[in-house]
Backbone:
């Protein structure tokens, strides 16, 4: 893909809005589960704590990414719906 092609392509995420919503819901559930697991781990389980914290951080990063994509998509949809029709 040339530089010009990259500039011309849509900046909108190509993910379906429903899929974004489902991903956000799923990640929120996983984050809650991992948080609960971390709270219930024994202080001696250092390896599991590290592993769960890594998973939790990864899920939070994915969630932020999906939420950003959803916000961009929502903004783009709103701007398209508020534009006046072209004059002939």
Residues:
């Amino acid at each position: 893909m040339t530089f010009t092609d990259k500039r011309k392509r849509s900046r909108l995420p190509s993910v379906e809005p429903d899929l974004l919503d489902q991903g956000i819901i799923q990640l929120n559930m996983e984050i809650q589960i991992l948080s609960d697991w971390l709270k219930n781990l024994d202080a001696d389980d250092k390896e599991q704590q590290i592993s769960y914290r890594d998973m939790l951080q990864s899920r939070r990063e994915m969630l932020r990414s999906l939420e950003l994509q959803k916000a961009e998509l929502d903004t783009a949809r709103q701007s398209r719906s508020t534009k006046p029709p072209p004059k002939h």
Residues 15-79 form one domain. The chain has one domain: 15-79. The CA atoms of residues 1 and 71 lie 27 Å apart.
